[in-house]
Amino acid sequence: MLFNSAQEDYREVQNVDSKNVHLITSMEKWEAKLLEATQDGKIVIANFSAHWCRPCKSMTPAYCELADKYTSMSSPLVLFLSIST
Question: Which residues are in the Thioredoxin domain (predicted)?
């Protein structure tokens, strides 16, 4: 599990500049977010990426833009997750 400073480092490495993308750093956090989505009736969109993967990095800005667009509603129905592999 990553601590806050490591999570922020991951945000910078992956260019995750959206607070609407939830970083998954442990199996416990993954299960908690899936439970939250199930209870709230949300759709889960998961992005699996690696810090060394150039295509993953290039996709991150578009993923963040989608997250901002679909979670800016008053009652968001989508939960965006980013999983570092």
Answer: 25-72
Single out the catalytic residue among 35, 53, 62, 77. Answer: 53
Write down how long the chain is: 85
Per-residue confidence of the chain (85 residues) as pLDDT tens digits? 444 444 555 555 455 667 788 989 899 999 999 999 999 999 999 999 888 889 988 898 898 888 888 877 666 788 999 998 7
Q: Determine the structural domain holding residue 54 and report its residue range.
A: 4-84
pTM recorded for the entire structure: 0.73
Question: Which one of the listed residues 16, 21, 24, 56 is annotated catalytic?
Answer: 56
Active site includes 56? yes
CATH of the domain at 42: 3.40.30.10
